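User: Please predict the structure of the protein below. I'd like the answer in structure-token form so I can feed it into my own downstream comparison script.

Assistant: Understood. Taking the following sequence of 136 residues as input:
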Amino acid sequence: MGIKYGSDEWAKAVCAECNKSQAYKDAAKNWEGDMYFVTEPEGALKETLIMYIDLWHGECREACAITDESEKTPAYRFWAPYGIWKQILEKKLDAVQAMMTGKLNLKGDMAQIMKMPRAASELVECTTRIDTEFPD
């Protein structure tokens, strides 16, 4: 049985995967920025899920699930309906392509994100290694 998607345990598993991935460390060595990943309700998911992750020079310094976006003030906010996030995690949809086509929304410095597509790809790769229990 996997880890429940969007839970605090899942967020911490993402952090652990980033910290043990040499590919992520190399790709994100110049990255600075924390972020929210917001999953909007859709289908079997009936509530908004908010995960916070603090990434700094190839390392995850903190990750957690939160209930109120006013708890932190991250540099970036990514949001999409549940189905889009699930497709990304199942490697059926590329995250960078999803941003470019408006399926995955971003508030923050898009130019900085676009300078580091490999870091974004390696972050997603870390999330795909988690044995995830989806709500549907």
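That's the full token string. The radius of gyration is 14 Å.
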